[in-house]
Amino acid sequence: MRLVIAIDGPAASGKGTLSQKIAAHYGLKHLDTGLSYRAVAKALLDKGLTLDDEDIAAQVAKAVDLGAMKREELAVHAIGEAASKIAVMPRVRQALVEKQREFASLAGGAVLDGRDIGTVVCPDAPVKLYVSASPEVRAKRRYHEILARGNEADEAQILADIKVRDERDMGRSDSPLKPAKDAHLLDTSKMTIEAAFEAAKNIIDVVAIKN
Ligand code: CDP
Fold first, then answer.
1. Which of 142, 163, 164, 160 is nearest to 151 (CA)?
2. Burial, 69: exposed, middle or buried (Cβ in 10 Å; 0-12, 13-18, 19+)?
3. 139 CA to middle of ligand 1, Å?
4. Choosing a second label site near 144 at 20 to 30 A (CA), which of 23, 62, 192, 207?
């Protein structure tokens, strides 16, 4: 069967790790759509271009190659912040969403994670998960991720950044972050990644059996 799994949620909610585990378990390809917004932001920053010009940002978005995105190069905190700024631009979104839909239509199905997968990119996906956690828990997770990469971080600053980013992502007029009406909500604040995976698997297996 062609299983498309849409996973949305705010920054550092655990949706990335969860998506990877789900994709591996069900033998599906995985796309972290956040990387495509990050790729646009990085290209602009590298060229010293402004983040405020929609024409330029949309042109860069059209040139993004989903297959060539490298997580290691895009993981930097500042790129995530810049990504959420260019992500408010409708023409940037349009260019990237088109590529993401192509990915989702791959034979065999796919797991996509992001902010608007269940609402905009794949509104017909048979499984939709909305992964959340409190801002404090998410800031702690992001802080430990940065330390694990050997870099320094300020947890209070990360918490402040996460709150600003939540507001920007949830408050924008084009494709705001919100659970799709038919999404299953998964609050991972008190869950280990294993527990979150088990909960997701229970939801997905019910759909997989029906199809
Ligand atoms: O990893 P983290 O959750 O920090 O961020 P990300 O998923 O890499 O996404 C970076 C930014 O891209 C988000 O804050 C969103 O503004 C934007 N984004 C989006 O608008 N739509 C998506 N489907 C994915 C990301």
1. 142
2. middle
3. 15
4. 23
Predicted TM-score (pTM) of the model is: 0.94
Rg (CA), the chain: 16
- Cα-to-centroid distance, 2 and ligand 1 (Å): 25
Question: Per residue in 68-120, pLDDT tens?
Answer: 999 999 998 889 999 999 999 999 999 999 999 999 998 889 999 999 999 99
**Percent of the chain residues past pLDDT 70, beyond the cut:** 99
> For residue 13, which atom of ligand 1 is closest to its CA?
3
β strands within the chain, DSSP E: 3-8, 29-32, 109-114, 127-132, 184-187
Q: Whose CA is nearest to atom 8 of ligand 1?
A: 34
Q: Over range 107-134, report the average pLDDT.
A: 96
Q: Whose CA is nearest to atom 2 of ligand 1?
A: 11
What separation in Å is there between the alpha carbon of 177 and the centre of ligand 1?
9
